[in-house]
Amino acid sequence: MSLKHLLSTADLSYADALAILDTAEEMDAVSQREVKKLPTLRGRTVVNLFYEDSTRTRVSFEAAAKRLSADVVNFSAKGSSVSKGESLKDTVQTLGAMGADAIVIRHSASGAAAQLAASDWTEAAVVNAGDGTHEHPTQALLDALTLRRGWSAAHGSSPRGADLTGMKVLIVGDILHSRVARSNIWLLNTLGAQVSLVAPATLLPVGIDSWPVTVYYSLDEALAAAPDAVMMLRIQAERMGGAYFPNSAEYTRRWGLTDERLAVVEQLRLGNTDSQVLILHPGPMNRGVEISAAAADSALSRITEQVSHGVSVRMAVLHLLLTGAKA
Question: Where is the Aspartate/ornithine carbamoyltransferase carbamoyl-P binding domain (predicted)?
């Protein structure tokens, strides 16, 4: 891979994106073995620097680094010197002095990961694990791995080396505050997918007309266009400073994947094959709001697979960044 850092999916070339996904396939095979370890990063130190709460992402990166035999340091802003006013620069320089080879950073400020990578505070590789409402590249990569698996299986082909040309992906919900949506839009377009968005007008970013997407305001209308995958997004109440829709019940009625809409989705077919479409959600889910329990637990759901693919993708990213290996 040609990159030193992973900050944004917009930075990934087609070749880099496929290199990560193909390496993740190999890492997934390792994860299925009885002994789930590789010596690839033995003697290297990976720091998980999390200024925001996280379960899936932090644990996934920790598992990925440990399966590659790296030493792992988990740093949480809560209970640290950050709560006493220590700056990002001082924190990073302290960690760098401890020999960090890679810093995985999650921060509430958009651009924090890019600022760190562009600074002279550290020589470590920087991986963006989510920065404000900007991007979350490894989430998009694990989503792409999940979609590629389903798309290839439906067409009876191997996922390795394949892209998503012709696949229609519908992303539903809080686009405005979603770093996951942004990363997915850039990556899925790079891989050849056709991306559509559906949301209340109040939850769409300014300038959306210039993005490489088709925009709907009605979920029923968007489903009538027969997408191959439906990705539901969480309503991010913690990032909302005002009323973006009347109430949760109204949101569910108009934009939620309800049991009634699940019945519609179950009739759709993936890429004109006999396979059913895929339902994804980056988590954590607000069951009964953006997605019903029946939809989340249905045979179409790939939500559990997304979580498991997260470890494989993050293993691939750390391996490629820290070894300079070519997939």
Answer: 4-148
- Is residue 287 marked as binding? no
Whether residue 179 is annotated as binding a ligand: the answer is yes
Q: State the total domains in the chain.
A: 2
Q: Are 58 and 101 in a shared domain?
A: yes
Q: Is 58 annotated as a binding residue?
A: no
Please tell me whether 149 is known to bind a ligand.
no
pTM of the model: 0.94
**Residue 194 annotated as part of some ligand binding site:** no
Known binding residue 283? Answer is: yes
Query: Are 93 and 224 within one domain?
Result: no
Beta-carbon contacts of residue 135 (< 8 Å; ≥ 6 apart): 7, 8, 9, 10, 128, 179, 182, 183
Tokens read off for 154: 């439906």
Q: What confidence tens digit (pLDDT) does each residue in 149-203 have? A: 999 999 999 999 999 999 999 999 999 989 999 999 999 999 999 999 999 999 9
The pLDDT mean for the chain works out to: 92
List the domain range (segments joined by +) for residue 256: 137-307
Residue 302, annotated as binding a ligand: no
Quick one: 123 and 168 in the same domain? no
